[in-house]
Amino acid sequence: MKSNLIIHIKDFRILGLIAVLFFVLQSNAQVKKERLRIGTTYTKIMEGPVYLDLSTSARIDRTNVEVPNIDLEIYYEVDGEEFALGEVRTGPNGNARFTMENLSQIKPDSTGLYILGASFGGDDTFRRASRSLEFREAAIHATLQKQDSLNYVSATLADVALDSLIGDALINVQVKRMFKPLRISEELLMTDSNGSILVQVPGDIPGKDGILEIEVVIEENDTYGIVKTSLAAQIGTPIAHISTYDQRALWARSSRTPIFILIFTGVLIFGAWGLILYLIINMYKITKN
Amino acid sequence: MSRYEKLIQDLGPRKFNIRGKLWVGFLLLLIAAGIVAYADQIIEGQVVTNMRDYVLWGVYISNFVFFVATSFVAAIAIAVLRLTKNEWRRPFVRLSAIVGLACIIMAGITIIIDMARPDRMLNLFVHARLQSPITWDVIIIPTFMMVSLLLLYFPLIPDLAILRDHYAKTKPRLSRIYGFFALRWNWAAQQIRLQQKSIYILALMILPLGLILESIDAYLFSTTYRVGWDSSNFAPYFISGAMVAGLGALIAVVYIVRRNKQLKDYITDYHFNKLGKLFNLAMLIYLYFNINEYIIPLFMSKKGESEHLDTLLVGDYALLFWLVSVVGLLIPALLTIFKRFRHPRWLFYIAVVVVIGSWWKRYLIVTPTLLHPYVPIQGVPESWHHYFPSLHEWLITSATLAMALLIISLLVRYVPVISIDRLAEEEGLPEYESKLVSK
Q1: A289 inside 8 A of chain B by CB
Q2: Does the structure's ipTM exceed the value 0.95?
């Protein structure tokens, strides 16, 4: 009887251990969080703002998905010390942009290297994550030149901290358009040893009043990020602007209805309802007789 | 019993018999089911229908076009036959006005049902663009509805006065109701002159308004750049189709009323024969327009239209198309050439088949076209490429048809279906003469 009782207690111990194990496993399963990926892109507009474009994504069920509504803390780093810059929240597509007026808001290290970063503190779904990027400050100076009645864009690329020209860097020269820029150069241009490029601007590119907004861009350079400058010049072919917006037409807004429709419809409406009113008056007259 | 009393007894209001009560009960049941379905559609949105981005005009619009077409019957029976001085029209005139009014009322209601958000109806007026056929439709339907109502009402006034006087002692309450609508009618010369003038104006109005209504209905489709709709043939095609649907509905209603109210002495085989001839003419004209609409494009249609025609002639809708075209139009058009098939009973069966065919014809005009857009939408679910109405759509559509039939049934119950006043005048009955003399 006693031995049976001991066995019985042992059984309870085993069951208790299984229950504790199950609870621990269950707790671990509950706290298992996904890994958040943060993407960073640095863009500098000459004589304009500096952008840090951020994206958050995660691999869930073997599929990459964009993660919206993630609060990211932006910081810069100098000599191993981090300084907070601000916060942004990713939008519906998992994208966010942090804007600075210029690079003077942050400091480089003694070699002129900047480090910008974004960190996420973690939540119920995602673990903590951070991502930083390093870049040097570059400057592009673009001018328009005219040689033998032909227009050229000349641009020079320089490293600001080193105060030296940058050779062998790939540069795009393009005209700004609504959806996608129109590239002028047939292939990517490479700066020469003086950090310069020279490219001809075709004379038949259409623009409003002939004005072209030409952009000179270093695209995602490993050292300098994206640097962009632009200049506007009246060197294109003016667009003939034909608008029917204010014309009275079948496809115009209601206030620009064609006169013949106004008259025809008006005559029909007032004619028909005028007669209906007359008939209703007749009903009244019948009552009075 | 005097002849005058006999006229009132035959043509005046008559209580529903057991079959009539069952009929009204059945209609009310359909209407109740439709109201429940519509309430659910309002709450859940049009997701309860099977209309999606492809077929955005489904059975509601088909039904709307059918009602608009059928409402045209008043314009034919009253205006055309009156202006052409066809005296055989008389027994049908009031019933055609009743059918026309019921159908145009239901057309207006059906288009609101299709709007899904009836609370936004005011926007149709506030943001109206007069260039749009939708706006023309918004204008013409209430106008035609009002004229149809007056066209039924004005000729009815003396009959209402006769019933007022008739029931003054036996049924004073009913007499008071008839009296209210009789506008103190006492056969005074001035009243008769005003009434006759008003009827003449209405008869003149209903024809152009009817033509405009049917044309606008056609423009709703033909001004939209889609295969099967982009046709300058559409307005006359719709008008001829409306004549067929309207006359078919009228024949069916006249036959049932004649049988239930035992009006064989008033609506004779001669009248049906004449109406059958007009019906036959309408069907032959409609057949001609169908040939223009479907056969001629076979010779010169481009890819998009060829695909659409294939769908109708040999594709998914082929069975329905050939049933509607052959059973619903060609065979009736051929049969009614022969006098034997213009006999009331035969004509009734033919008319019922034609009306059912006319309803499905509108479905064929609306739906297959929407399944073949010039620029297909990419990546849509497979189910969007097909359309068949959902249970909600069928219940609501059945309810609108039931409402139209209920309006007709109730008006036939309470209103003389043939003018007692006119018959009494034509027969020179002393009771009628005394009313005139006494004033």
Answers
A1: yes
A2: no
